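seq/struct pair 1
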Amino acid sequence: MTSRSTLMLTAALAGAGTLLAPAATAAPVPDGGVSTQDPMTSYVMERDGKTRAQARAYLATKDTKQATLRSLEAKGVTADGAWFDGTQLVVGVDSAADAAKVRAAGLRPSTAVGQRDLDRVATKVLGQAGASKHVVTVGPDLQQGVVEVRIAADAPDSLRQRIAAMDRVTVTTADELTTQADVVPGRIMDLSPGTNCSLGYPGKTSSGNNVLLTAGHCVEGLPDILDANGTHIGRGTHTRFHEGYSSVDMGLMDIDSEDVGQPYVDSRGHSGYYAVQGASKNAVGSEICKAGNTTGWTCGTIKAYNRTVNYGGTIVSGLAEASVCTEGGDSGGAYIGVGNLAQGMTSGGPVGADCGYNRGYAAGSYSFYQPVVDAANYYGVTIDTAN
């Protein structure tokens, strides 16, 4: 194909702004440049009333503690989940030796709560629920040390009572969930034929092919993918999402050969562009933001990993949850967290959420995303970074 002008792409529910540029030339830096400052800075200032210096110091503390944990894991410590209590990072451990190493590094070990134990409880809950369409969400809450189960308002009392009687389980009522790809002509990631999403994190396969990680439901059926001007930019090649069946919401798009993905997250006019420094699963309680087609820049905290959710009969496992608002048209895009680390691609959220636009933490609500680390590992992709 012939060369074309630079294309700005964002990802469906989360809208990770990705620059695609002609391969023959260096990709241009966005107007105003790309910031290496933590993208959570303005969010923390807005949420907590901190000065810019205070917000940066707060985030630097969290980033340092997460880096300490990654270093411990590289040295053989097995972390069974990690979560923040204020700015203190708590690490689940299974042995006295690992507890001592965690404590010596300035972190707080916990032998009472762990991800794997709560995952086992969640599996038992799903067994009790069977094929019930009334169970909306099941998954661990590390900060509370329980498995949180959300049940539809019209669920039978017998189901609610049976699950509530289980040990280490809490039951609440929740709205129906949905994946969030809407038919919106002219949006940034148009699927041909079909709906609208936003593009997620670009990267490379082991063979050097340029690809893009997105939500699986955005590329179900392996559609051609167009930009807002109707120009072909790629094609869906893989998905683990299958409507009506047990699924995982990860997928892959092949980027056309003349285009190159660039590791910049576009805050959609909120606070500029942010350079992606790597990818991780940040600790529960860590700040996180997303940029989306429909809702712009919305922020919150990571609430949980390994959530299983019910999208109107399609059961999706392996998702993370965040207190970040999303709407239809945001799906497939990128969440970015403390340390400029890629976190994931949006999967879905509650029906009827009203986020406004660029409302930061004030948008409220919650959403689910596919952790980028899991998708990258599954497909053998190394995401592009600014390093």
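seq/struct pair 2
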Amino acid sequence: MKVLHPGQTPQTLLQLRPLAGSIQRIAVRSETNISVRHSGRTRELPSPPGIQMNLTVEVSRIAPDGEIHYRFALDQMDLLVKAGTPQKEAEALRAELAPLPGLRGEGRVSPDGRSSHFHAALPSDLAPHLREPLQQLLKTLGGMGTFLPSSPVGLGARWEHQTPTPPSTTTVELKRLEKQEVGLKLELYAPPSSTEPRTQSRGAGGCVMSLDRLWPLQYELEVETHTQVQSQDDGPPRRLETTTHLRMRMRERSFTSPLLRPSAYLR
């Protein structure tokens, strides 16, 4: 994490401070639209249905060095079926998702939000065409805490987080800091790839975090990915360009503090 500007004074070290036993219930919604441009014409392609899921995340323990151990469970999952989708097709897609509710996983997060040891084993009988997008979605969820800088910052601060594979940079700006709540503006950029198919992405969104929680209270990101492929048919070279628009939203549905549960007083 590289701080580009430390922001105004006073400056604060932003660190996660959840309590062991705290529980978040989270709703996640992901939707995709695809269009293709060829021979000067753009048309919409049939897009996969969106996905809506409810998760429960529990902080299982806090290690002596402050590392946060957590576990999560996928409670509910459904499709966001587009109008006009045949009922039989929608039912078949829902049947493919049937093995997923009950999925469990675990992970660890450092106080400055660095995620590690994230693990969730997808069911072996999951349809192959669902495995890759769900793995990517779980990977995104597992990295939710990587928005915090490792040095003190104030309002207006800007910092960036880089990932090597695939290469991308997320630039973050601190827009609000009130007690434990942090409001962030997010911008994502992945430069054009050097090999075919050539892809590049840009995205923007926002995030509200509470430092006594593990995952955000609110999160929203929209990303456009452009892919260009050289046509392989006979004749003059032509380019086929595909644009994929992804919108992901997360909201906290409820939060239970261990201080409000009777079991927290039993030792």
